[in-house]
Amino acid sequence: MASSIDLLRLLLVLLTLSSGTATYRHRTASHNYKDALTKSILFFEGQRSGKLPPNQRMTWRRNSGLSDGSAMKVDLVGGYYDAGDNVKFGFPMAFTTTMLSWSVLEFGGMMKSELGNAKNAIRWATDYLLKATAQPDTIYVQVGDANKDHACWERPEDMDTQRTVLKIDRNKPGTEVAAETAAALASASLVFRKTDPNYSKILLRRAIRVFAFADKYRGSYSDGLKSYVCPFYCSYSGYQDELLWGAAWLHKATRSPLYLNFIETNGRTLGVDENDNTFSWDNKHAGAKILLSKAFLLQKVQSLHDYKGHADNFICSLVPGTPISQSQYTPGGLLFKMDDSNMQYVTSTTFLLTTYAKFLTRSHTMVNCGGVIVTPKRLRAIAKQQVDYILGDNPMKMSFMVGYGPRFPQRIHHRGSSLPSISTHPAKINCGDGFNFMKSGSPDHNLLVGAVVGGPDEHDRYSDDRSDYFQAEPATYTNAPLVGTLAYLAHSFGQI
């Protein structure tokens, strides 16, 4: 028989769980999350490659890369530049697409007027990914030679470095890129299922074909294309995580027993038991665990029971004060994984915390971290604290999102932002001449509104030095998961 203490503890847990369904509407918002949401999506327009549409809002940008793919006699115009350079890397672009899609799938109903802009950001990527996967058993995974590109500092509009085209195929496989691309196409197919069913079907059919290619011809693209993709976007974690992640998204998009069987059969060999507590463009294990735990919690897919435990372990590793917490935080409270673009891990982790809190609330469940009960409310509080740090609640008293708040980075590691725009300086700025601007201490000529930079060091220090790409460079995969979390916060505080 349960003791009175046990009953009291159970009552407190149930009360806390029920309060976890409440939002922050009756509290004062720390920030204008709606404004931050708008800007976080606008950022993607500054990263566009190709022919820009008439409704382009980041007006200092112009058309670029209009002959991309011509070296291989294919059309690879479009897509995104991943960060501050002018290369189109397929691996991080696909992950960006998946995370934008997941943001919309979980929190799109809260985005209101920004939902259309978020979908436009996704479609700009998927239109390109459809081009890159048009040929069976072939994916074009990169446009541009990063080494040559990084030897120049020039606007995308002036780009005259070699637009080398790289591909994977049966002879040079790239399972991680292919499986991530399948995840991107499958997740996006769900985004457009109701509003554009024909496009959704095209995306899903392509996702199925691309995943089959990824699984059948296994191998790392870091091996076959090493001199081009390393050290920029080497796959350090291997391709097993992408196979699990891709299968999880295809299971969600198709509800086919084929993918569920794949997950049940291959989960352990694909590393689901590994104790990863990092989620990024390279390592998808944590994301797959969270996604599959939803199928168990909400769709009652009993064969995925273990994924709830795997997801709980990941979540517990993030929560300070629990017996199995593994994460490091700066003195100012920022989750800190590594010096190189740390903010990417903050935004991706924050999204998983917010999303898992949603699943737990809907299933009236909690997380037991070595005897410490962690509620959805606690996870949301941790996520909010991370977002608030990004937006200005930090020892530097500055926002790490360009254009948000009274003080934000003025010298980001970004070619287009640092150089005068075509409209103010029509003459070409040559490859080497641009370094005069890069090395200048002057503020950026153009605001890349919404860009979240790499962020401060482990001591909360940020130098605002354009040459420090660890701290000062933004990236699409940093912004993508933040979109979902900001939508949740803006809605929760009644701002949207």
Automatic annotation (TrEMBL):
EC main group: hydrolase
Domain Glycoside hydrolase family, chain residue ranges per copy: 33-486
Region forming the signal peptide: 1-22
Reactions catalysed according to its record: Endohydrolysis of (1->4)-beta-D-glucosidic linkages in cellulose, lichenin and cereal beta-D-glucans
Any one of the GO BP annotations: cellulose catabolic process
Active site location: H413, D464, E473
Coiled coil feature spans: none
EC number(s) from the headed UniProt entry: 3.2.1.4
Keywords, ordered alphabetically: Carbohydrate metabolism, Cellulose degradation, Glycosidase, Hydrolase, Polysaccharide degradation, Signal
GO molecular function: cellulase activity
SUPFAM superfamilies on file: Six-hairpin glycosidases
InterPro entries linked: 6-hairpin_glycosidase_sf, 6hp_glycosidase-like_sf, Glyco_hydro_9, Glyco_hydro_9_Asp/Glu_AS, Glyco_hydro_9_His_AS
Pfam family, one: Glyco_hydro_9
Family (UniProt): Belongs to the glycosyl hydrolase 9 (cellulase E) family.
Listed PANTHER family: ENDO-1,4-BETA-GLUCANASE
Protein's name according to its UniProt entry: Endoglucanase
UniProt source species: Tagetes erecta (African marigold)
